[in-house]
Amino acid sequence: AHSLNVETRKKTKSEADEVKNWETAVLSAVKAREENMLIEFTATVDLANQAIHEKYEDKIVHRYDFLAFNKDGYSKDVKFLYNQEVHTEDQKRLLIINAVALSEYRRLLAERVMGITISPIVLIKSVKIAQSEEDRKFFDNVIGSLRPEDLNRLKELGRENKNREHEILADMFKWLASKEAGLISGGDWDGLKAFTAEIRSSFAHDNTLIYNSQKKEKADLLPLLDSPRNTIRAIFSVNALNEGWDVLGLYDIIHFDISESKKVSLQDIQLIGRGARYNPYELPRSYKRDSEEDNMLSLFATRNLEFDKYKRKFDNDPYDKGRVLETFVYHFVKTGTFLESLQRDLLGEGIISEGVEKKTITMKQKFLESETYQKGFVLVNQTVKRTKTKGDEIDTTFKRIIKAGSYNLRARGLSDFEQNQIVAGQKVDVIRITEEFFPLPIIRKALVAAEAGFFRYNNLCEHVVGIKTVDELIEKYLPLYEIKYTYEEGKGISQLNATEKLQLLVGVILPEVRKAIDVNMPRVTGSKKFRPVSLSSVFGKEKNIYLMSFPTEDPATGKKVFVSTDERAKAQSNHDNPDLQYDIETADWYAYSENYGTSEEKKFVKYVASQIGDLRAKYRGAEIYLIRNELDYWLFSPQDGRRFSPDYMLIVNDVHSGEMYYQCLIEPKGGHILEQDLWKEEALISLTDDSEVVFEAEDGDSRNYREYLEEVSKHGYKEVKPLGFKFYNSDKRGEEDFALDFQAKLLDR
């Protein structure tokens, strides 16, 4: 819908200027009939433009802008790495070296530590189209002549360690020299000889391309840049990729304009905004944080980290080396006021948050001295492999509709205007993944190329348990999909060439097949068996909560400080909203010294406060504690093995008579995400009646854990049980539903 403001934007220039454009055309169509209604969806409404602001002031129904997107963890962290102004040629060389070194470090770290394959893209933004070819030749010369000593300037910056960008560089050189990187040898003590060889190979001429309005080299590769099999690592362009380009693997942009007079343009902001889009990946359970020590069963070696594939993983540990996989870097020469202007504009768009605000909470002394902390435990489950495929899983997974469009075959995305231009002439055919529509060699090639090897037999057989060969997938299961193929004139399935058919399968259809298999036929599920782990080994005595923040002036000192606008930055004890305020310090049942939670979480704490008297009356003599779970403890869904961390754990521990030990897991949830997180609620609810607690040792348990099991079994509780509850939601119906569940499972038990 951002194309609908051409005329509105012009009003600031000439009120009387009437030209035929997309906005006037659409508005004419809307006004043609009185009952017509126009609903707009856009990610880029320029509310800073006064005319556009006035137009939309009373029309915005819902606003989820980049600032909210950033706060919720769905974008990369944007950083700047710049050189001071010196000789032109030296500057360009340094910019290239900075970018390719960081890019290759990301690739190697992802591959050798995370076990994932990515091809981080570097975009080189030339000043003029004619200069792109020269810039590419210069780039080739830099890469071809790259030697370890060329990295000395980066090493100096890492040692200076003045800001977060420099910390990433320090992490890089430390890791390259470690055994984990696999680069060091007898004659290469710091790994830099092997590292520069990797760079020369990855950024060779054949792994680069030029894409401009006049030269669209290898354009068919653009939609495939996020494929793990992609080999393109550097793209040279001017403005052709500012719009309609969706590549999540873009991590570095080099701005080759080093002139004193360069200004920040809207295109710069758009391009950085595209680079800031998060590149999803799954953090492996085996990942070891820089600051983490081994603990019981190594179950919580990655505690405090986020495991949602689509969100930043390291917001609670911003100095971990893994952060580089979610950091976008803009490389340029610092001249004039370019940096200050760029930061100001990006802050205004919410694309960057200039700092981090840290909140620290500590355990109360009473809780540290309690039996629950010193001898208590948490109940954990693990993942188990599925052992069979059920008939209903086949139907749910394969007997479904997939929508695919010919516009997905283009080398770039379509603008709103272009998409609407072809809508009237579109046709829809039903096709299937069979030889009638796709030659068998193309189907086979697509299965090999698509989704990072997901469809290779060694992985496929762990999802579709019992499948004998990939041919069985091709002959028996893939034809069950009904593909609704939408196309314009000249793009019918029979008119596509082999490359286009391959692209349709790899880029559009097979990703949907993978999603269906992942959701309905997961490799693993969460075990219904729970085992004890020491509570004190899971919940730390002190926690640091890191929140994205923005600069403001401290009225007391006049100095710039970083303050988060997030609700989670506000302490509940002295909150200015009486509906959320509660004195945490006097709540002897709350384990930590303060609660920095969302508004929904703060309301939940007040709800527990209203019930604590009834709980103590019901469970006389028991220790009752509410513990905030800041990604310390997690649960694996019994449905599909997905991992999540319920926000609160309520422990009811009968320390005197040993009647019961209840672990209650509760998740406050805002109404806007209730539906998308229903799988979490289902996992929680299933705990009460569909789980078992086991204290016996098993094969593979360490000697230390066997000894721990013997010790904890001596407590002699008559009932040990995990309890899961419906979501707490503060609206009337949500709170009533939770209250009934809370009453039934705890107070009426």
Describe this structure in words.
With 749 residues, the chain is of the alpha/beta class. It has four domains: 62 residues, no CATH class; 283 residues, P-loop containing nucleotide triphosphate hydrolases (Rossmann fold, 3-Layer(aba) Sandwich); 218 residues, no CATH class; 131 residues, no CATH class. The protein has 24 helices and 23 strands. The protein has a six-stranded parallel beta sheet with strand order 1-6-5-2-4-3, with helices on both faces. The protein has a four-stranded mixed beta sheet with strand order 17-20-21-23. Strand 15 and strand 16 form a beta hairpin. Helix 7 crosses helix 8 and helix 16 packs across helix 19. The two termini are 55 Å apart. About 2% of the residues have low confidence.
